[in-house]
Write a structure and sequence with these properties.
Layout: E1 7-13, H1 17-28, E2 36-42, H2 48-53, E3 59-64, H3 69-79, E4 84-87, E5 93-94, H4 98-108, E6 114-123, H5 129-134, E7 142-143, E8 150-153, H6 154-160, H7 171-181, E9 186-198, H8 203-206, H9 212-229
């Protein structure tokens, strides 16, 4: 009989005290809870660390100087003991059956190293009507290649390698491109697993100037593929 999977969850946070507690609670409330939850406090100047510590011993909090979310996630993976890895941004929320459904999907497709579910968005409740009017409308439930909607085997993660820390935005797109190049198979769920919070200072809103990174990532992937083909 196969051993029961050990799931580690990594939550990077920087100055996220307002929403971190809700994110952690959505992880701890899973119908199949993770075996380990690691919060990486990435140089916060607010009370994020104190919020995370309220959930000890179920949650372990590790602090580091601010190095960015990619490095924070990589640090969390290096500290994790699980053979399955999951991630959540400190202002987003998991649906209660996320891990249960994704583990079932991996059991059903043993050749897959990754499984993604669907994603919905919502305006953060503290936003006023004027702020909401200036923001885009939340996207309806849709397939989502988002790190918070993924469950990965440790084997697949090690094949692809850590998140690149050289990009200003979109480092997970780069990781997914590398996973595809490496032949890592993905399973897809029709179930909603992640709710993404839209807020005034969200990373995507604040980094629109860096969207050119996406084009450079895709070009780099194409160049790597051509090199292999050559």
């Amino acid at each position: 009989m196969a051993a029961e999977p050990v799931v580690s969850t990594v939550i990077p946070v920087r100055d996220g005290e307002r929403h971190l507690g809700a994110a952690i609670e959505s992880v701890l409330a899973q119908t199949r809870p993770p075996d380990e939850v690691i919060v990486i406090d990435d140089g916060s100047s607010d009370r994020s660390r104190e919020v995370a510590q309220r959930y000890a011993p179920a949650v372990r909090c590790i602090s580091q100087p601010g190095a960015g979310p990619a490095e924070a996630r990589n640090r969390g993976v290096s500290m994790a003991s699980g053979d399955h890895l999951a991630f959540l941004d400190a202002d987003d929320l998991w649906e209660p059956r996320k891990l249960e459904l994704q583990l079932e999907a991996l059991r059903a497709e043993p050749s897959a190293g990754l499984v993604f579910g669907q994603v919905a968005e919502f305006h953060s409740p503290e936003l006023d009507a004027a702020a909401i009017a200036r923001m885009r409308r939340p996207r309806e439930r849709r397939p989502g290649q988002h790190i918070g909607a993924m469950l990965a085997t440790r084997e697949a993660w090690d094949v692809v390698g850590p998140l690149a820390t050289t990009w200003r935005v979109g480092e997970f797109l780069d990781w997914c491109l590398r996973a595809d190049e490496a032949g890592v198979r993905s399973a897809k769920l029709s179930a909603l697993v992640l709710r993404r919070r839209l807020r005034r200072d969200s990373r995507v809103q604040a980094n629109r100037h860096a969207m050119g990174d996406y084009a450079r990532m895709i070009k780099a992937s194409l160049d790597r593929r051509r090199g292999v083909a050559g």
